[in-house]
Amino acid sequence: MSILDGIYKLQSGRRTKRISSYDRAGFNKDSVPIGAGEVKEIARIEGAGIIRHIWMTISTSDNMIRRNAVLRMYWDGESEPSVESPIGDFFGQGWGQSYPFMSLPLAAAPQGGRGLNCYFPMPFGQGAVITVENDSDLPMDALYYYVDYEEHDELEEDIGRFHAHWRRELTEADPEDGENEGLLEIVPLKPTLDDKNNYVFADIEGKGHFVGLNYFVDNPSPMWYGEGDDMWMIDGEEWPGSLHGTGTEDYFNTAWCPKEVFMHPYFGIAKINEGETGFLGRTHCYRFMLEDPVYFEKSLRASMEHGHGNVLTLDLATVAYWYQSEPHKPYPKLPDRAGRQNIPLLNLHDVHYWRQEYRKAFGGGTKLWGNEWRTQRPQG
């Protein structure tokens, strides 16, 4: 069977339409401005239909606009958004940055990832509304956009609604052993027998299926961040649940601590901490479960360990994507603008200060190399 099968079948009861930012005066100013602090409604559609494609690009002097601007979507007259995310993260662009990204449902296209595209189908039965909030002190000088959709006479009863939700957490190291994770050979590795301290990327109520995750990790350590297992508790079941993974890189269909860009239509690593020591810095992983969605009848709690046993301090941000029946469980309040900003990148000066503290721990020796911890105990 081809992905193009069915494209030749003639259709009835649907009409193709578009809402865009084209210049209504007939000139070439094909964009809309959004003032600082303003919420702009970019699409309002009546009746039933399916959004098939969204494209947009932004011009502004705010270099963090992709975290400062917030995308929201509402289906069927609902008051709570089914989609709520910083605009960059939704399209697969972490940390307010712009870089190429390629997958089947989402892409950030040339130039330099500035062309933002979404191909997730988004059905609605009684209308749809899309807004963009410019949560910035600077104006969005120009937002260019297409919303391509189909009008339908009606939709079937069993069609789920598209959802996407952004979360972020600065995870905590183990209060007793720090960021040991069994790698520092100081204390034995602890077993993991529950998911209570995991990073939760989806907390869903209702009937539906989970279809994808963008995972943005900022790691303040040169050590590998990817030993954490993915865990899926379906319909209120107890740990270990119906699906239990073997490591973060395994969930993203890679292996053996990858550190290279690789973009498959369903999974990959779109950005790596290139040039940094070990795994220090920012990495963007993604997986779209289009062939293997996770189905649930009543609820889904999906989570990832931050290091084996949840021992690593990581700045984790995710966008989860799924379809479900409405109404959905309202999302936690989106962090304010300050709560969405980046933690500064660590640099060579920070690493040098760590070395100074290491010297102090070993008595201030002037010829300490850095491997003494393997055979000696620090003083104090």
Automatic annotation (TrEMBL):
Organism per entry: Paenibacillus lignilyticus
Please report the name of this protein according to its UniProt entry.
DUF2961 domain-containing protein
